[in-house]
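Database export, one record per block. Field names are fixed; values are copied verbatim from the stored entry.
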Amino acid sequence: MLVVVLGAPVVGLLFAMPMLSGAIALIESVANRQQRVADWPGFNLFDNAGDMLAITTALVGSVIPGFFLGAWLGGDEPAAGRIQIAGMMASSFVLFPIFLLSMLDNGSLFAPLSNSILQSFHGAAEAWGGYFLKTFIAFAVVMMLWLLLLGEGKPIALAAVAGCLFPVLVFFTCQQIGALADSISEHLSFEFVPPNSEDEDQT
């Protein structure tokens, strides 16, 4: 039992690291208006350890409020699990881009809110509106599929299909965050620099 409790998070992290590393590369490419990802991360995933830590912290931090709110609303009801899923998706939908861009803007994992990002809601309202509209559709579709595929008595194959939807949602969200970062770039104190640009500057 102890091995399962301690090993499950480690295994989950190992599987999540390539996804998060790829998500960072996707954000950088879209923010720089590239048609495709110029440089997917290699096997040395620790090259982007700082960025992966930022996106992980932002993702976990944005999910926690929805988790506790869903647990409180669900209580002991039979549908408590589904209420928690809905709560976590709702809070991450709203908070994830704010936390991630704020951490990168402040240059600190302990500063999930940035004045520049908050002010961009007024200065770039159209960009934020476009982001939330597109991601709302994606989150709503995935949540409906999860509610249909997951549950007691459902075949394991359906749970596997539901699990595959998570990285798809993460990549789509990060693609939209990259487009958002490009649209509100004048409000940011940082910029996404693709790896190949850094190599060219050094030569």
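Remark 1: Residues 1-8, 198-203 have pLDDT under 50 and may be disordered.
Remark 2: Helices lie at 2-31, 49-74, 80-106, 115-123, 125-149, 156-183, 195-202.
End of record.
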